[in-house]
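Tokens as discussed.
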């Protein structure tokens, strides 16, 4: 049974409020840092929705402790059985009342200036509805020599590269009202599926600047969490590319090229994980 606990009785009418949806599963070592990163934002009024996906550790107690020390923040906790990240985010989306919606994974942190920069773009850029940022510090130079430059990301762009990660994005409420919920049946690469659907309907903008701390410095693949299962992640990505062709009417040639490119990246990632996690430790032990 789902148990919704309102830690703050203050209501808001959704105006200028950012609903931050945090799916939480056994995150006792990271959830406080994630919440602190919201509290440190230089701009924004927040409705924090923490959906506890059946955690068995001390995560919920950590949230209670945080709430006690931050009485001015509006926090909602939803306790539920373990169902996976898509179903968990969907519950947060159903509850959200803000006119902006953001996501924050329980092991990520926002930089203090993240929301002020993204809100400025949403409010000042013509027809901007969805804004993300980089999540790897070294990625800026790979895209442009001007790290602060904005880039429009199309659905075709997303066939070849995952420009967005859930903790990086803020979107206007009408995006969610049009695109809908995350696909419950998808447990891997589910965020790219959502962003493909979004980019087919709305202008998506990337701030070419890293504004989050991603996973306490872990690799984006092959270490922990859902991204740790390389095979399932690749299967999810191939499903996304098939979906883009069949449901979003993306060109067959582009989708085929994207599939080939994805398989090459998959092989490269296997090699990186093998060298980093098998060969290097073995060499170190010999020394």
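Sequence:
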């Amino acid at each position: 049974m789902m148990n919704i606990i309102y830690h703050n009785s203050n209501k808001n009418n959704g105006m200028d409020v950012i609903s931050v949806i945090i799916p939480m599963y056994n995150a006792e070592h990271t959830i406080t840092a994630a919440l602190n990163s919201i509290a440190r934002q230089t701009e924004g009024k927040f409705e924090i929705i923490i959906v506890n996906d059946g955690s068995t550790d001390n995560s919920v107690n950590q949230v209670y402790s945080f709430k006690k020390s931050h009485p001015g923040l509006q926090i909602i906790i939803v306790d539920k059985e373990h169902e996976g990240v898509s179903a968990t985010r969907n519950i947060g989306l159903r509850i959200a009342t803000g006119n902006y919606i953001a996501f924050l994974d329980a092991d990520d942190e926002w930089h203090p200036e993240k929301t002020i920069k993204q809100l400025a773009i949403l409010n000042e850029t013509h027809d901007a509805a969805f804004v993300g940022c980089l999540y790897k510090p070294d990625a800026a130079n790979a895209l442009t020599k001007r790290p602060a430059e904005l880039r429009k990301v199309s659905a075709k762009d997303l066939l070849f590269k995952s420009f967005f990660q859930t903790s990086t994005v803020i979107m206007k409420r009408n995006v969610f009202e049009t695109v809908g919920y995350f696909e419950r049946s998808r447990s891997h690469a589910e965020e790219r599926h959502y962003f493909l659907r979004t980019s087919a309907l709305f202008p998506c903008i990337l701030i070419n600047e890293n504004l989050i701390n991603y996973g306490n410095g872990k690799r984006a693949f092959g270490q922990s969490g859902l991204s740790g299962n390389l095979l399932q992640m690749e299967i999810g990505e191939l499903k996304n590319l098939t979906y883009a062709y069949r449901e979003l009417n993306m060109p067959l040639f582009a989708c085929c090229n994207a599939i080939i490119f994805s398989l090459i990246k998959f092989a490269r990632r296997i090699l990186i994980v093998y060298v980093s996690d098998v060969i290097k430790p073995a060499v170190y032990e010999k020394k």
